[in-house]
Amino acid sequence: MAHASLTGAVPADGAVVNAPPKTLSLSFSEPVSPLVLRLILPDGQSKTLETFVLRDRTLEIAAPGDLAAGTHVLAWRVVSEDGHPVAGSTIFSIGAPSSAPQAAGEAIDWPVRTALWLARIAMYAGLFFGIGGLFAVRWLIPDGAAGLPVIKMALLLGFSATVVSLGLQGLDALGAPLSNLTDRAVWSAGLATSFGLTVVVLSFAFLLALVTSSRATFSGRAASLVAVVAGSAAMALSGHASSATPQWLMRPAVFVHVVTIAIWIGSLPPLAYALQHGGDAARQALGRFSRLIPVCVAALTAAGLLLAIVQVQTFDALVSTAYGNVLLAKTALLVVLFLLVVANRWVFTKPAERGELGSARRLARAIIIETMIALAIFAVAATWRFTPPPRALAIAAAQPVSIHIHADKAMAEIAVTPGRAGPVELSAVILAPDFTTMIPKEVTFVLFNPQAGIEPMRRKATLQADGVWRASGVVVPIAGQWHLRVDILVSDFELVRLQDTIEIPR
């Protein structure tokens, strides 16, 4: 379920080094923040690694000074830029491999995941029916004030769910069970993610709406406007769109999408209350609603299409990814909702505006059905919390696979871009034993896969202006473990060969 992916490690995954490393490093496809770093020793004991430096997308970790020979597992858990936790491990051996120690697997904690999903639904309900409903009562449908008790309940539900979701986010970030919800470290971890800022701003919006919900004066109207703006802005501070580019376009698109949903969906319960009471005020409110909502629907549809295009990218991803499947399910429910909206507008609204007997009550019942469909959409959309968008998957797939190979006379930092089977580019930085840049006369890459019966493929590299040797147009026909050799012609009389294995994924 990773939203950021590991692109390289030192020592490389599966590497055998002669001496204990002084520094361990992990490189990722996007900036991350470390949560838990553990080194599992050959005897099965675990050491927590607390000394590290974060340099852009690379995490440099100070290794313990008393590492023994054998196989070690570096287990890591970080939070990606969009606020979602990512976990994994790499293996390296000192001297020679030993039986690998067991690292805890990344099993799905269904109680935590279910609680996160339910909290997200309640948070949406509070935002759209609570904050959005209060805005509707104060600005669009004053006659719907009879629904204020329901609106206050939605606000309390949303505020409670938002606060609890911070702790649940911390559990998910640390991989802790639901029983640890009261631990202070769990809440600190949740607050440290980008979702923590969403919780802070959204909680402010809920509290403002709750405190001013009984005020029908100008201050109450102004507070409802601030609450709906702050609540919508909060949703743009974390999540998939927070790390998508260009953010100057994506974050406003999320804001427009959320604020228009809040105005539209939040108006439904107050409008149903007003219609049940009837009268001129209800008909006037229906007229205002009928004029405003088409504009809101058009804006949220345009913003939603933009977000979908950026996140999904290809039609194939709609079917082949979990994110695309959720989008299809949400779209199907939206189609049903839009059809009902059209029916309400052309079948029920005109008679209700004319005051025909029973028409207002029929429209109110139809609005209640719309509300139920909206709740179903919230439930479907809440599952996006657990599905990386195709955009993120494509970025991860395009990241290079890298290895470090060294010998007595030279070493090389080699990258295969993109890090998957198919057409790739091979690149290498050649270094002297003292880590200074070496400029050899010639560099040749050699790839072969004996298990698959593939003989050596040789590609001569070209030195670029940035000091990197590159060979383009190389095709890795299948995924799997490949042998990669670099032939470095240091002089007319000296050839250094560096060789290691590299895992090429699909």
UniProtKB/TrEMBL annotation:
GO terms for cellular component: periplasmic space; plasma membrane. It comes from the Bacteria. Residues 3-94 form the CopC domain. Coiled coil: none annotated. GO terms for biological process: copper ion transport; response to copper ion. Its main location: membrane. It is a multi-pass membrane protein. GO terms for molecular function: copper ion binding. This is Copper resistance protein CopC. It comes from Shinella kummerowiae. The lineage of its organism: Bacteria, Pseudomonadati, Pseudomonadota, Alphaproteobacteria, Hyphomicrobiales.
